[in-house]
Amino acid sequence: MSTPPAPTSIFRAGLLEGQVALVTGGGTGIGLGISTLLADLGAHVVIASRKPPHLEAAEAAIRARGGAVSTVALDVRQPEAVQAVVNGIADRLGRLDVLVNNAAGNFYAPSATLSPNAWKSVLEIDLYGTFYCSQAAYPVMARQGGGRIINTSMTLHYRGWPLMAHATAAKAGVDALTRTLAVEWAPQRIRVNAIAPGPIPTEGVRKAFALPPDSGVPDIFAATEARMAEYARTGNPLGRWGTPEDIANMVAFLASPAGDWITGAIFVVDGGDWLAKREG
Length: 280
Prior knowledge:
This protein is of the alpha/beta class. It has a single domain (20-272), classed as NAD(P)-binding Rossmann-like Domain (Rossmann fold), CATH 3.40.50.720. The protein is built from eight helices and seven strands. It has helices at residues 29-40, 52-64, 79-93, 116-144, 165-185, 203-208, 225-235, 244-255; strands at residues 20-24, 44-49, 68-73, 98-101, 147-152, 190-197, 266-269. A seven-stranded parallel sheet has the order 3-2-1-4-5-6-7, with helices on both faces. The relative contact order is 0.14.
């Protein structure tokens, strides 16, 4: 039997030993990067996703690295299901130290023709789901004397972004929710922060952000790898795209003792992308 590859990280081995983390949308892309690092650092990671194939592949990959992981099918738009999952984690594992609200459903669509169902779906996944999961985690974290809630935001609503009215509205709500819960739940020692990732071209992002040919917006995410690399080199101040590991590192920092006096903050992790001036 071969030995699992040794995890590599800038963080101390065993940093999160004995902790339990729930990562929604944790089976692919950024979520998988987060789940993998938290497991590498010793946490038991519970990955939640609506899609069983994503859960199966993610669980196998993390177990191959020697991590402790379990999975659960979950649609974060359903508050009763969310409550049942969180209660189940508390009953089975005894605690919940870290909640990462990463589940999201985004796509490009013209605002003038955006259907009510499309608007509702993204708001319910991104904003309602973040609230439902946080609310379900609150009593568990309060009973045990504290915890960390880390939400996933974005930067597009900082400057406005065509064809993304639904997502920008939802993520602006996530920012406001983050700050409100941080103040309200601080007496229970529950730290609530958010991370706003920049462009991270995972396979899921390429599919979600595929543009209609008549949209009038450059289809960056559907470009060739060479064009994408050139755009990052010339358009991003730090000269590259982000990776899931970039976001996972910030999650691990906030989940660690280094985040003990941080709450209500939204951390932009984008290589300076949202500050860069665009021409044309």
